[in-house]
Design goal:
2 copies of one chain form a homodimer. Chain A is of the alpha/beta class. Chain A has 3 domains: 3-318, Rossmann fold (3-Layer(aba) Sandwich); 359-547, Rossmann fold, CATH 3.40.50; 560-697, Rossmann fold, CATH 3.40.50.920. In chain A, 41% of the residues lie in helices and 13% in strands. Chain A has 29 helices and 23 strands. Chain A has a 6-stranded parallel sheet, with helices on both faces. In chain A, helix 4 (43-53) runs parallel beside helix 5, helix 7 (133-152) packs parallel to helix 8 and helix 20 packs parallel to helix 21. The model of chain A is unreliable at 1-25 and 27-36 (pLDDT under 50). The interface between A and B is large, with 121 and 121 residues. Chains A, B: Keywords: Magnesium, Metal-binding, Thiamine pyrophosphate, Transferase.
Amino acid sequence: MSPGVLKEIGAAAGLPAQKNMPGSQELVKAEKKTHDMGAIGMAAIGVALWKYVMRYAPHNPTYFNRDRFVLSNGKSQRHTCIFQYAFLHLTGYKKMTFDQLKSYHSERYDALCPGHPEIEHEGIEVTTGPLGQGIANAVGLAMASKHLGATFNRPGFDVVSNHTWCMVGDACLQEGVGLEAISLAGHFKLNNLTVIYDNNQITCDGSVDMTNTENINEKMKACGWHVVDIEDGCYDIAGIVEALEQAKQSAEKPTFINVRTVIGLGSKVAGTAVAHGAAFGDDDVAAQKRAYGFDPDAHFVVGPETRDFFAGLPARGEGFVRDWEGLVGRYEEAHPDLAKRFRKRMSGDLTGWEELIPKSFPEKPTASRASSGLVMNPIAKGLDSFMVGTADLSPSVNMIWPGKVDFQHPELRTSCGINGNYGGRYIHYGVREHAMCAISNGLAAFSPGAIVPVTSSFFMFYLYAAPAVRMGALMRLQVIHHATHDSIGMGEDGPTHQPIELAALYRAMPNLLYIRPGDSEETAGAWTAALSAREQPTIVSTSRHALPQLASTSRAGVLRGAYVLQENAAAVLTLIGVGAELAHAVGVAQKLKETHRVEARVVSFPCQRLFDAQPLEYKRATLRRHEMPAVVLEPYAPNGWERYADAAACVKTFGHSLPGTAAYRYFGFDVDTLTTRVLGYLQQIESDTLLRREFVEI
Amino acid sequence: MSPGVLKEIGAAAGLPAQKNMPGSQELVKAEKKTHDMGAIGMAAIGVALWKYVMRYAPHNPTYFNRDRFVLSNGKSQRHTCIFQYAFLHLTGYKKMTFDQLKSYHSERYDALCPGHPEIEHEGIEVTTGPLGQGIANAVGLAMASKHLGATFNRPGFDVVSNHTWCMVGDACLQEGVGLEAISLAGHFKLNNLTVIYDNNQITCDGSVDMTNTENINEKMKACGWHVVDIEDGCYDIAGIVEALEQAKQSAEKPTFINVRTVIGLGSKVAGTAVAHGAAFGDDDVAAQKRAYGFDPDAHFVVGPETRDFFAGLPARGEGFVRDWEGLVGRYEEAHPDLAKRFRKRMSGDLTGWEELIPKSFPEKPTASRASSGLVMNPIAKGLDSFMVGTADLSPSVNMIWPGKVDFQHPELRTSCGINGNYGGRYIHYGVREHAMCAISNGLAAFSPGAIVPVTSSFFMFYLYAAPAVRMGALMRLQVIHHATHDSIGMGEDGPTHQPIELAALYRAMPNLLYIRPGDSEETAGAWTAALSAREQPTIVSTSRHALPQLASTSRAGVLRGAYVLQENAAAVLTLIGVGAELAHAVGVAQKLKETHRVEARVVSFPCQRLFDAQPLEYKRATLRRHEMPAVVLEPYAPNGWERYADAAACVKTFGHSLPGTAAYRYFGFDVDTLTTRVLGYLQQIESDTLLRREFVEI
């Protein structure tokens, strides 16, 4: 930084930083039910970031090489999204008008100031709120930048060179997902990532000392982070700017800046837990205004001095954009092919995957986790948009393509002999399922479609990751989760690993596709759905054990959610088969016919959400429930199948540790026992006709 | 430790420790599909623990003051439950016969050697498998011991003085839940807890260095742990014993023992990732046997030398039991009243709570989170069996009783002025929802009913905690979760905090009660159900906002899951109301009648699982679905309601950040709009009769 800039910062620091965040006391006061005293304490950090350090363009909010800012402590009730909203307004984001700013926590349906930052709005990179997620998102954003830089930058042409800034509170550093991500960021030596700790030492319950007395700086150092302390985080803008600038120059570590702040700065409850749950009082606001030289009777005023202070930022931002576009223009001349690929990535264009999906598969029985590899690995190999990772289950999830290179700091190679660098696209996340999925959200959020992350683990462990999977669905990010070892067929690991009830969560989760394919052909359909869903995450849920290749399965059918696998004009019953147990339905239909002369039709039903989107006529023609009862066979809790079936062979207890086939037998899920159960149901509804209109567990 | 014992250990260490774990290579080999080479590398640790250090009684496995051992790395596929099973067999647990040991991963339905340790079996303190949970369980077990000791011990009478030992692998130290629990254990200065790190530096994917290069010892020190290194963990039994004995004497910190081991010790793939996913080969087993002086052609043999080595342990254990029972006998004479309370706690007797539940409530509108406080706080105050905690939401969850004392290390008082000691029963968990619930499982598992843990947080954050809630259900532990801020009525925090789909998970989760009470009276019913469920966890799901007190709500009705709130002989429709929206159903019924002359009956439906357990006749009489359609009103994903209703006013998208009443209005959940929607449905099923037999979202 030039001495001139430093001098200017000194002058700015002479003004209390809070002066540059006018109106926020009013906003907090006006909304009596909540309370964002944290925002006041963080004002100096905001000035340092938005005025001096961050590279962004308010009038061009999605400019590709912008710095990314994540407010991990974005929750309104505990923390301080108003902090970000106020700076978006002051720095000139067009949609964030003063009128919008005043709508904070109002009843406006079109408010841009919801109770936490939301990705839909200008200047917001990721939706935050559930604590700790933002750290992991920021790690993903920084990895995306490292990766794209390693892929596309050439000497003299750093076309991807942005920095990621993440603001956290005490809570983010207590949450497991944050701790997982911190450990991994240190491992990856992400020197383009800075975490700024708003260390006000106050949580809802009181002093942080009540629950956390660890030495956070030493902990971060042990995790491979560079640590900087700022003692006066409320006023020392110059010190903060210096620390942030140094962080940008960090040679090989992410930086953790521990900034001491005071919650509720300037109010009577400053520095206490009361400030955590309180709004400023009238007298507090008036006193603060007097101290800063404002008229205490003028409300919601941003003075000309403040407007001037931030006035040049849109123009500066346009300069950044012009410079970068100029660079990319020269890059196109120097490296035309590379630039073409770069443009394709920036546009989110995935063209090419359709042709790479196999048209047919080997006829031998194949675990659908292996079928997933047959489908996805050629695509991951062929299209560099995909970054595939696993939570330490590479040998189990079958997602390695020939010649894959790991995403790693290039020096790691020497220490454990792996083939990796930042250009690599296979990510070893460690046994950190939750961070894996939250980091993937960051990878996907960097720029729509520039990176499509694929995660993988056992299905049961997606319960560990569920809060992050949910955030991906909420943010409408295309992240594909390959969840193997579904159903009880996964066997010996037993009840802790048999996901009896987990499908119920994911089938209910908005904007997520949960798909259980029944063989290789259906697995092709599941991945086709996932790859086509540009604004949805998908869970492709596959088996550990080999599944037979069934006649007449159809990838096109999968895209409709459910379809008739075996029609039967004489049918008295529909059997619904799902995923790893689709073959069971086929087997039961055959057995019913051959042994008991009962005719059944079979419907394959891999995805409820895709089926729900079909026209009513298609749904009725597929299920034919007005003509005959439908029985679903799935060794999961049946919750939700009541919409599509009249009865279920299901599992309502936890599972049992047994080899897969024995586990099926234990739960009466072998074809013989299932056949008996279905016959029993047919007798049952004959003897009690009311049952025909109720849902029956058989 | 006496010099004599040390000498004996020296002699034992002369034998390779692996010799004392005979047959395990065979077991691993016999079960080709899995692979527990980790167990071999940990054998010396096992000898140190079971032969020398741990206080336990094989023939009296639930003796109250026993040391607790938790195999956090208990997963069969990655780690090593066979380790624990082998030692349970060798040390003389009666049910763990050699025949049972050989059944590991077999098809026996009654096997005691499932793919992970299960709490149902002798010598197993908690069910483990999902990684990281065991650390948190161990923290809970250690807290239970600290708490009971502080409550009941008197000078000369340490009636509760056991130690907790927890074995972890690389993965447990990467998982967020483990990291949260580690931080809290350091804060609480649990010197009765020792974590033994089986540091073999190998995971599924390869070297741990691929994903984790942090300095674990420094990290643990920063978290307030005492750290000890053992360089030769495969053979240095004396060194391990010394470290474990020192850990028992730790003055004020938990101890972390970093033990370097070699995975697949003695095999050709020792120390490599191949060993992680492999079984020993025939030649490996033969070579190992030769090296240890065994006959390579004799299979599944435990020699007399080994039997002798462990022979005295049952008798030693009975000595521990006799000594302790003698101590308790003298304690009963010295402190008769205290001893009586102690006996009551040990028996799990909760007698007394029924009388403390209020018979009636104030008539004013009350948030059900506050109603929960009215119900539970007098019980928590009156019965010391309850330990109530929160993940940093004390002001929001209303679970503080007058005069509550915090569970804290007594010295903490000086540093932040809190009223706490180990005898306290209010636990500040910090913002660590997942660890809160996993630690609570440990508190509950210490001895059935001795401690009944209550957790509290916003309902949405129970998604963070879901893997631990699940483990509590799987272990049949009585843990009560008070989940506040349910439904969209919680308001401004918006979609990240509005739990649209979360109820679907918990309604499907086996052995868990998810209950949404509709007013104070129903809240009394919800807690009555939770307190009565001695082998089930419960989620009491309550509102942030005030709910009116409704006429004819019934706590007894809640215990049946659903009940008729308003019967109506002229009804053409049943309205099902749930929890915070029960009043909406009542309002719609009234509006339908007054404005549209449509008669409806109202059913209150707080808990699906309790209702499912009712006789068929009761269920039919309550819902009367064969006579008229039923419409459920709940602003959640409807999945699962299809079993009880024909239509739903529901929410299938994520929520929206608005004040509570505005959020209801935004989603058409105000009484006027709901009435219109219900009328629309009645018209719809008239015009399309097929719809009457389908589930309709209105």
